[in-house]
Amino acid sequence: MAGAVADVLSDSEFATIFPFERFNRMQREALPALTESDANVVASAPTASGKTVLAELAICRTLDVGGTALFVAPLRALTNEKEAEWDRFESLGYSVYVVTGERDLNSRRAERADVLVMTPEKVDSATRKHDSPKYDFVTDVTCCVIDEVHLLDADRRGSVLEVAVSRLRRLCDPRIVALSATMQNVRDVAEWLDCPPESTFDFGDDYRPVDLHADVKTYTHGENAFADKYRRLYRALDLAEVHLREEGQALVFVSSRQDTVRAAEKARDELAARDVPMSARGDGDFQERAGELENDTLRRSVSDGVAFHHAGLSKHDKDRIEAWFREGHIELLFSTSTLAWGVNLPARCVVIRDTKLHDPLEGEVDMSPLDVLQMFGRAGRPGYDDVGYAWVVCDGSEADKYRTLLREGKPIESRLAEDLDSHLNAEIAMGTIRDLEDVMDWLETTFYYVRAGSEPAKYGFADLRERVRETLDGLVEGGFVSLDEDLSVSGTPIGRLASAYYLRLETASRFADLADPADRDEEGGDGGKGADENRGIDPEAILRAVAGAAEFESASARQAERDAINAVLGGPDVAVELGAGGRKVLAVLKAGTLGSTPSELRSDAWIIRQNALRLLGALRAFLARLAGPEEANCVRRTEARVEHGVSADAVGLTAIPGVGPGRASKLAAAEITTPAEARAAGTEGLVAAGLGEGVADAVLENARELPAPAVDWGAFPGRIAAGENELCEITVHNEGGDARGGVRVTVNGIEMSQTTTYLGETTLPVGVFGGDIDELEFAVRVTFPDLPIRPVVETRTVVVE
Which tens digit of pLDDT belongs to each residue from 87-140? Predict the structure, then answer.
């Protein structure tokens, strides 16, 4: 049988991993390029045509010759799904490992993995740090499979994918297999990846397993946005109803998680009112199975054959919804756009109800054309439907725009120009670009350069090199890059920090300014409690620096949120320099430190806090490098308060593993506010404060693993005669766990000596000089920049006689 898996892979152990007997037409045509050659491959094909099999064939060839494969998935949610799905490789003795966040990375597993699964952002991060022991595994990749390479045209994320792939090619030159939905300019992508014509495939709509009927339906736009959602919902139900009555299924895409729930609830009532038969209602066995769902609202909805799907559901519930939709028990499913990029879940009818989305950081934005086309690709179930139907519901003023998109598609563009300065800075900071010639060589490795060559007028190809040189000059002027007389370039401390922490360059400059005492007043700090002990830095200045970061420049505040914002900030005239969006971010962060976010701000609070925590971590690194450990420690305590929602008194307790906001607040109420006080309280004291005995034992054990500095003043005098001096030594011992710490010695507030080191035993020389004042107050401050523990301070007074 032509194309039979058993015949094609007759001599391979991998024949058993494919859950079907025969490759389809598209797969058969690509087979020789994937399995009989090591040339790069680019394949553009309609959604649901079987592109994942092409990825798996490339991985099989890589594993067969002892190589390491990297699969680049467009979304983090999909990386976990691939790990589960590819247990088929695990069954043959190969290791599949998903590389996620920095904290969760198991570098040993990554180094030993045969198949790595990463998002573009993680590939970018890993390749930036490729020369560190933790990430050097990335240079062992011999084949890189890019799923949905048309993500190149996505706002912000597209440039990340572009530079990460270009960098990976320079580091280890792996084979590249790039897969995409239908795109106009597949040849441009092939040219960028040096893919020969014989392994460049542009599979057209005739390879689509189900024909597609796609069109636009308009609705009458009103004055009330809430009412408009329901107008579009009724329009969507009108389009879906005919297919539901024929025992077909419909998939409706809406703008947010909350909207999936509300739309499903309203649709249940409306379908009942229209007397649309839904098979789930009379299926007793399915009704019983619906009881397995963890989400109460979802459980009630599913009983009528209507469901919702979004990233906030548990994996347990998402898996069941997907399975039941495939089985036909769920006939109408409401989802966010993530489902379009993820699980292959086709339906006879697809409707995009919402073409505009609310982004907490961007305000109202148009759905990207890539998302629209990706969603339409879900229309039509192979083996069940002859035709798939897809509709965009939009205002009449936008109908022509979407009809043109559906008729002509769109070429994939480079987004590198939008963030060229940040990406060029990153390459210089890493040392992959060392001089002006390298800058131009790097430019030629980008998709940006290829697209500019294809569309010279659109991209201004004639001036491209000049624009890149201007970008480099801007980096030099901004203090991110040093340019020497011999035209060699190198990253400055600020440039390297900006690259390491993925900061917009405007934000990096803002953070560097906060590290400079001369510029701190401009950040709006109120010089409140804690400012003096942290040499001018206080939580207010820290939160304002983050709220004003460029990463939040598009944050917006709805009218209904403004009273709550003013209440948190203390009035409408506070922090006006941040603008409405920045004031909202600041209000969310300040409310977070109190553990009480107003209900009006909760819908966007989680995403704002997550972004802010990343920025706070970066700010801490800036201050540790450019200011000192005390300033960095102030940021760390502020960061922990935002993360845990605890008081300034209790925040130090969150350094103890196992102590979250509840236990920290309980202990602080009993006047136990630091790890040192927890150690001193012992199990008995912790139990008296309200902890269970087993928990108290664990907390005590974990507290003992934290650093416990003690100051030995040695032969330090209590008196000294005027005009005399004495050189003494002060030793700081750490009687607990290891940690990086700063030790600073001052006399009457003036710094005499300081050092930052991993604390074991540190000795500092201190001079005692009898001057023309009556007393000398010496203070030793031990500060931990990476822990939310207040500095430990010990003092001695010397009387001048």
Answer: 899 999 999 999 976 557 888 999 999 999 999 999 999 999 898 899 999 999
pLDDT tens-digit series, residues 711-733:
999 999 999 999 899 999 999 99
Q: 3-class SS at 291?
A: coil
pLDDT of residue 531: 46
307 in Cβ contact with 334 (< 8 Å): yes
**pLDDT score recorded for residue 342:** 63
- pLDDT of amino acid 612: 95
Q: Which two tokens stand for residue 187?
A: 């040849």
- In this predicted structure, the answer to whether residue 748 has a pLDDT above a threshold of 90 is yes
The predicted structure's pLDDT at residue 157: 87
The pLDDT tens digits for 452-472 are: 999 999 999 999 999 999 999
Quick one: how far is CA 72 from the chain centroid? Answer: 15
**CB of 601 within 8 A of CB of 565?**
yes
Quick one: CA torsion of 492, 496, 502, 505, rounded to 10 degrees?
0
719 vs 722: CA distance, rounded Å: 10
pLDDT at 101: 66
Rounded CA separation 344/325 (Å) = 11
φ and ψ of 263, to 5 deg: -65, -40
First to last CA, the chain: 105
What is the distance between the alpha carbons of residues 801 and 573, in angstroms, rounded to a whole number? 54
Q: Which residue has the tokens 């307790």?
A: 653
Q: Where are the beta strands (DSSP E) in 648-739?
A: 709-712, 719-720, 725-734
Alpha carbons within 13 angstroms on the beta-carbon side of residue 349 total: 23
Residue 211 phi, psi (nearest 5): -60, 155
CA distances to 5, 24, 28, 54, 669 from 2, rounded to whole Å, are 9, 10, 9, 17, 75
Tell me the average pLDDT across 752-769: 90
Is 233 in contact with 267 (CB distance < 8 Å)? Answer: yes
Give me the sign of the Cα torsion angle 554, 555, 557, 562: negative
**Residue 688 · residue 670 · CB < 8 Å:** yes
Question: Encoding tokens for residue 538?
Answer: 């206080």
Which residue do the tokens 């809406």 mark?
254
Strand arrangement, sheet containing 740-747: 719-720, 792-800, 775-783, 740-747, 750-758
The CA distances from residue 695 to 230, 666, 674, 680, in Å, are: 51, 13, 17, 16
CA angle 337, 343, 347 (to 5 degrees): 75
